[in-house]
């Protein structure tokens, strides 16, 4: 009986927990340059046009023609039919088509007119940099499964119908979760080592060319690793570097040295992306450890609030800026009670 009680005492212990802290670092940079010359003749309809300039020369020529003022001369006669004078009226041009054509221009665009010919020179340089840092964390029981999602649901049209005779049209919409997902199952082993089964996904919306053409970028990682308590381990990484060059030109004319630049459009883009994922498990065996980790996170958030409070807000008084109380029993007391205690201590 005594031996049985000892076995029960050994088994009847508090289950350990594991705090999982992940670190996702993504750095991306890109450079690009587009340069092109387009030609067009409104009288003959001849054009040299490229699709990567943002402003097709055909639309620009039509817009320039409609934007010109129209002058009309009308002869004025008296009641006997005798000529008196000519009256001239001017009607302002319509800039709607020109504004629509130039709305797609990125960078600089210069239009040159020479008789019936029009030239459109466009140039744009792009430079993009991004540095994304995400640090999701979650606490889970030993051998338990935990999932963590931070993001949003994006509606995606999956189908549509207009019905018979265009009656009762409807669309079917599916919602896709986009953001940061973390699913983990920890198992504590001997020697304070932790085996982790991890599924991690980082996704975002790239854009859409149409109602049903939504593009998503997804970085997913599925793995099982062994990590020591408190050790940070890199789970995986991606270094992606791309360089693209494209050229559109008029045959023969575009190959002429120097002069050929007037009959071609060039585009060059260079992009580089670094993605690294780190993870750190911390074993929590008792309330003291849990309290220490909680206090560390709590004080970090409170320090951020105090820093923001020192900077101040333009639309809010400094006394009204919310700040967490000091970690301890005060955190569970109502704000009115804490204010009363502070007033009593001052008196």
Q: Which SSEs are present, and which pair or pack?
A:
Layout: H1 2-11, E1 17-41, E2 47-48, H2 57-67, E3 70-77, E4 83-91, H3 96-102, E5 108-114, E6 117-134, E7 137-141, E8 146-161, E9 170-188, E10 193-208, E11 214-228, E12 233-249, E13 264-284, H4 287-311, H5 335-346
Helix pairs in contact: 2-3
Would you summarize the structure shown here?
This is General secretion pathway protein D. The protein is an alpha+beta fold and 347 residues long. Helix content is 19%, strand content 51%.
Describe this protein's structure:
It is found in: Membrane. Pfam families: Secretin. Keywords: Membrane, Signal. This is General secretion pathway protein D. The protein is of the alpha+beta class and 347 residues long. It has a domain of 62 residues. The chain contains five helices and 13 strands. Strands 1, 2, 5, 6, 7, 12 and 13 form a seven-stranded antiparallel beta sheet that branches. The protein has a four-stranded antiparallel beta sheet with strand order 8-9-10-11, with no helix packed on it. Strand 5 and strand 6 form a beta hairpin. Helix 2 packs antiparallel against helix 3. The two termini are 63 Å apart.
């Amino acid at each position: 009986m005594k031996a049985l009680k000892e076995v029960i005492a050994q088994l009847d212990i508090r289950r350990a927990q594991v705090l999982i802290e992940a670190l996702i670092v993504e750095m991306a940079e890109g450079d690009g340059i587009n340069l092109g010359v387009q030609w067009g003749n409104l009288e003959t309809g001849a054009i040299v046009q490229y699709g990567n300039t943002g402003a097709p020369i055909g639309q620009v020529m039509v817009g320039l023609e409609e934007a010109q003022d129209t002058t009309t001369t009308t002869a004025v006669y008296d009641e006997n039919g005798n000529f008196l004078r000519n009256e001239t009226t001017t009607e302002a041009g319509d800039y709607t088509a020109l504004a629509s054509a130039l709305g797609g221009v990125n960078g600089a665009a210069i239009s040159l007119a020479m008789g019936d010919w029009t030239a459109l020179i466009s140039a744009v340089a792009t430079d993009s940099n991004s540095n994304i840092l995400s640090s999701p964390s979650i606490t889970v029981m030993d051998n338990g499964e935990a999932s963590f999602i931070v993001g949003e649901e994006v509606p995606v049209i999956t189908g549509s119908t207009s019905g018979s005779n265009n009656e009762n049209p409807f669309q079917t919409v599916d919602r896709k979760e986009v953001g940061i997902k973390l699913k983990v199952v920890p198992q504590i082993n001997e020697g304070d080592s932790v085996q982790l089964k991890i599924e991690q996904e980082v996704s975002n919306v790239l854009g859409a060319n149409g109602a049903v053409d939504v593009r998503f970028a997804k970085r997913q990682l599925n793995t099982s690793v062994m990590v020591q308590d408190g050790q940070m381990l890199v789970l995986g990484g991606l270094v992606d570097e791309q360089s693209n060059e494209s050229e559109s030109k008029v045959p023969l004319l575009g190959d002429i040295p120097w002069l050929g630049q007037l009959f071609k459009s060039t585009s060059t883009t260079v992009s580089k992306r670094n993605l690294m994922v780190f993870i750190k498990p911390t074993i929590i065996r008792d309330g003291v450890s849990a309290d220490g980790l909680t206090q560390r996170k709590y004080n970090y958030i409170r320090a951020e609030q105090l820093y923001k409070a020192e900077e101040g807000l333009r639309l809010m008084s400094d006394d009204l800026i919310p700040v967490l109380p000091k970690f301890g029993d005060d955190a569970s007391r109502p704000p009115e009670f804490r204010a009363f205690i502070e007033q009593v201590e001052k008196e």
